[in-house]
Specification:
It is a single chain. This protein has about 110 residues and is mainly α. It is built from four helices and no strands. The protein has one domain.
Length: about 110
């Protein structure tokens, strides 16, 4: 897998998670569903992805150095994992707020109404 393919996959992963969560169906992973919605909200989604990178990178680095630390301890490991879970929860909320703010432009729930 190339670096470009990995970056595209990481860029598209949150919109696919959101699509499956909103449709409650694995069929929402189809690019026919996610790519039109992504093109309609490209700027806010790109900002969200940049915020995700800027918050996950320090949390991942902290987790990495927690395991490399010479002193043992359950508390430091628990603290690093707690930080990572908190960051992921905050990003999931931000993704939900992105959908809430732009649901009409995304066009996923038109058939449900």
């Amino acid at each position: 897998m190339t670096v470009a393919g990995l970056l595209v996959s990481l860029f598209l992963a949150p919109i696919h998670v959101l699509a499956v969560g909103m449709a409650e169906d694995i069929g929402a992973l189809s690019p026919m569903v996610t790519l039109p919605a992504l093109t309609r909200i490209l700027l806010p989604y790109t900002v969200l992805c940049l915020v995700a990178v800027l918050t996950l990178t320090p949390a991942g680095v902290a987790l990495y150095f927690t395991y490399r630390a010479p002193w043992p301890g359950l508390l430091r490991t628990f603290g690093a994992h707690l930080l990572l879970v908190y960051v992921l929860t905050a990003l999931a909320r931000a993704l939900g707020m992105l959908h809430f703010a732009h649901a009409d432009r995304m066009g996923w729930l038109r058939d449900a109404e």
